[in-house]
Structure formats: structure tokens, C-alpha cells
Design a protein that fits this description.
single chain; alpha/beta; 8-stranded parallel beta sheet; globular; binds manganese (II) ion
């Protein structure tokens, strides 16, 4: 097996596919069994978009950096979950049109759309900034006219501002567009200032919040159980803004906020969710890694490890 620094990295050295638009079932791979889109349970797309951020840009470099960081742990069984059948492929980066947010989001949606229409695979987006989530949610909602999904949202920010679509307004728009069921939506780790109308909006829509202050006085298991209770066992989407982590653990992001989770705390909550086979996740993303602000790749490593955990935690044990 090649050492990590050799070659052109796909995430975890998973089989690679051409980005869609052209859904090509034949693709080459370096290691492991050949797998087609229709055999895959998860398809990972890079969504290198950062044109609708409110502060520092740079998350367009996130997908490449996270793939690179994932080279640290493709060479054995998961240390916690053990051997698992990873049915995932790396679908490459989705084409972005610089300066055209609408068209770029349309292209992300189309890729996820084609995927879910033609196969049983589920999407994973590597951001990119948080606006990319709405494209995935649009595809999940509209491709098979499925009901709105629940949402597990880890973030320092509420992302419920009003105004033009961007990374601070994305879930306001997602609710207005009926893409998510707000009564099965929970926001975890919040600690950034927000306008008072957000409280009214949450009350009106029945959105749950576990602020970081509440996380401070609760155990990992309490937090995870609360999440399970809100999303139940119905389909839900998992969206992780890497800025939910403390800047000590994730400095490489556009809008850092002090006082966040350690990487280990976040991974513990997520592992608890995977271990309890709940919730029923139909799509996920990890967003807002901005490598230019990173130190020693720690943010990209955290994001890669979180996704590595996700793939193993949700995979079947080998029969
Ligand atoms: Mn955020």
C-alpha cells in the first residue's frame, strides 16, 4: 500500500468517481474492491464554494485539504468501531461557478439529485461554507418528493438570520423552503450573538437548541440522548460546521468563536449517536474548513477524522 504522501488523494483512498452531471458507473480505483455508484451507500462530494460568507473566505480550499488530511487513517481498521464494510466512494468536486452563487448551488443540487434519483446512495458534502447545505437539502426534498427531513446541526452560530441566502441565513431559508421539519431540528453548541427575532422564529417553528452553556453542564450522553429524542428515528440530515469546535482545536475556519467543544467531545457525542443506531441519517456534511487560517492542519485533520468516524460508525459490521 502506498504511503500517505503518494498519489492524488481521494477521501480515505476510497474508490474515485468522476463528478456527476456525467454519472459514470465505470471509474478507476487504487485500492479495495471496485464499486459503482449504485453499490455505494455514500457518495462524497467536494463542494468548494465560499462566496456567501460573512467574514473570512477560504473554505473553497476545504475539500482538497480534508482529503489530504484523511491520508492519515486509511491503513487499518477503525480503532473504536473495528472492521466495517465501508460502502462509500469519492465523487470528486462539484463544479462551482465563481461569482454565481445561484448557479453553483444549482450544480450542487443537480449532482445530489442525479445521485439520489439514479441510485440508492446518500450524499456527503465536504465544504465549502455552510450555504452548500441548502443545495443538498433541496435535492433530498425534491428528487423523490420526500417529506422534509429532520436536522442535527452542530455549529457555533444559529445560521437563522434573515436576509439574502448565505452561510448565516441558510437554515432560515431551508425552513422557509420547507426542506426541513423544524420540529425535528436541533442546534447544538451555539455560542455566538444572534438577533432577538431568532428566538421568536425558533419558538414559532419548534426548533430545539442545546447551547454551549447547556452542553457545559450536561454529559455527553445527555446531549446525545436529547438529540435522539428530537430527531426520532425518521430521516434526518447531519450538518457539522467545524466552528462548533473551539478555535484551539479548529482555528482554520472563517468565523471562529471561543469556548467550543474539543474535537474529542464532539466525536464522543457523534459516536454515541452512531452506536445507538439512531438517528436515521440520509445525508451529511462537514463545512467551513478554511485551510489558510489553519495551524499544522489540525482543523482539516479534525474534519477528516469526524468523517472517517461517520463512515465507520454508520457502516455495517462485516457478516
Ligand atoms: Mn458557524
Amino acid at each position: 500500500m502506498s504511503p500517505p504522501y503518494i498519489g492524488y488523494p481521494s477521501f480515505l483512498r476510497l474508490p474515485r468517481a468522476t463528478p456527476l452531471g456525467v454519472l459514470n458507473p465505470d471509474f478507476w480505483h487504487e485500492n479495495g474492491p471496485k464499486m459503482t455508484f449504485s453499490e455505494a451507500e455514500w457518495v462524497i462530494f467536494g463542494a468548494p464554494l465560499d462566496m456567501a460568507v460573512t467574514n473570512r473566505a477560504g473554505a473553497r480550499e476545504g475539500p482538497r485539504s480534508i482529503r489530504n488530511a484523511s491520508m492519515n487513517f486509511y491503513d487499518g481498521n477503525h480503532p473504536f468501531f473495528g472492521p466495517r464494510e465501508i460502502r462509500a466512494i469519492d465523487g470528486g468536486d462539484i463544479e462551482i461557478v465563481p461569482g454565481d452563487l445561484k448557479e453553483s448551488l444549482r450544480m450542487i443540487k443537480e449532482n445530489v439529485d442525479v445521485l439520489t434519483k439514479m441510485t440508492g446512495a446518500k450524499p456527503i458534502l465536504i465544504g465549502g461554507e455552510h450555504t452548500v447545505t441548502i443545495a443538498s437539502l433541496r435535492a433530498l426534498r425534491h428528487s423523490k418528493t420526500k417529506p422534509p427531513v429532520g436536522l442535527i446541526h452542530f455549529d457555533a452560530h444559529c445560521d437563522l438570520w434573515r436576509g439574502a441566502l448565505g452561510h448565516g441565513t441558510v437554515f432560515h431559508h431551508a425552513i422557509q423552503e420547507d426542506l426541513i421539519d423544524p420540529r425535528r431540528m436541533i442546534q447544538v453548541g451555539l455560542r455566538s450573538p444572534y438577533p432577538s427575532y431568532v428566538d421568536n422564529f425558533r419558538d414559532l417553528n419548534g426548533i430545539e437548541v442545546i447551547s454551549m452553556a447547556t452542553c457545559d453542564i450536561n454529559t455527553i450522553h445527555c446531549i446525545a440522548e436529547h438529540i435522539r429524542k428530537v430527531v426520532q428515528d425518521q430521516p434526518c440530515y447531519l450538518s457539522i460546521d467545524v466552528d462548533v469546535l473551539d478555535p484551539a482545536f479548529a482555528p482554520g475556519t472563517g468565523t471562529p468563536e471561543a469556548g467550543g467543544f474539543s474535537t474529542r467531545e464532539l466525536m464522543s457525542i457523534l459516536r454515541y449517536l452512531y452506536q445507538t443506531k439512531c438517528p436515521n441519517i440520509v445525508g451529511m456534511d462537514i463545512v467551513e474548513v478554511s485551510p489558510a487560517y489553519d495551524q499544522s492542519e489540525i482543523t482539516s485533520l479534525a474534519a477528516a477524522q469526524i468523517l472517517y468516524d461517520f463512515l465507520h460508525g454508520t457502516a455495517k459490521e462485516p457478516s
